Amino acid sequence: MNQGWVKLHREILKKPIWTEATSEQKVLLVTLLMLANHREKQWEWQGRPYTARPGQFVTSLPTLVNKCGRNSSVQKIRTALRRFTKCGFLTEESTPHNRLITIVNWGVYQGGEKMATDSTTDEQQTPNIPVPA
Q1: Closest among 100, 31, 99, 104 to 65, alpha carbons compared
Q2: By C-alpha distance, which of 54, 58, 74 is closest to 66?
Q3: Cα–Cα distances in Å, from 71 out to 22, 25, 31, 75?
Q4: Which of 35, 78, 80, 75 is nearest to 58 (CA)?
Q5: Which pLDDT score, from 0 to 100, does residue 3 have?
Q6: Which of 16, 45, 70, 77 is the least buried, fewest Cβ under 10 Å from its Cβ?
Q7: What is the pLDDT at residue 132?
Q8: Residue 9, helix vs strand vs coil
Q9: Facing residues of 59 across strands?
Q10: What is d(CA 34, CA 32) in angstroms, rounded to the nearest whole number?
């Protein structure tokens, strides 16, 4: 099952969200990018329809702890989410059971310019001269 990929811009290495982050916060940041929907997703829960746009996803603190693995905890995840919100990286809406996370500027960073991998290998190989056997 192909679940796609996300862009991770090298520019982030210069930003305070990365340079001043703990290693656990860096793991969470990348995990959040990988969990975000790349296209609109609709579902129904308790008879109500819901829609998550690209860059959004619904999760819970325990789920994030599980996804981030060793050395993560609910408190560390909460602290990091507050920090990421203050940095303008994300917004979140929480309920007693889950939370909707929105990566700010998702479209700017994940859309945009055409990637080199968008062209097929066949198109690149056509001009090559076959090697005699």
Answers
A1: 31
A2: 74
A3: 11, 11, 14, 11
A4: 35
A5: 74
A6: 70
A7: 55
A8: coil
A9: 99
A10: 5
d(CA 14, CA 84): 15
Q: What angle do CA 64, 13, 54 make, to 5 degrees?
A: 50
Which residue's structure tokens are 């008879």? 47
> 116-127 burial, b for 16+ CB within 10 Å, e for fewer?
eeeeeeeeeeee
In terms of phi and psi (left: phi > 0; alpha: psi -120 to 50; beta: otherwise), the region of 47 is left
d(CA 95, CA 104): 20
- Predicted local confidence at residue 117, as pLDDT: 37
H-type helices in the chain, by residue range? 16-19, 23-35, 61-68, 74-86, 106-110, 121-125
- Please enumerate in sequence order all residues whose Cβ is within 8 A of that of 78, keeping only pairs 6 or more positions apart, or say none: 61
What pTM value is reported for the model? 0.78
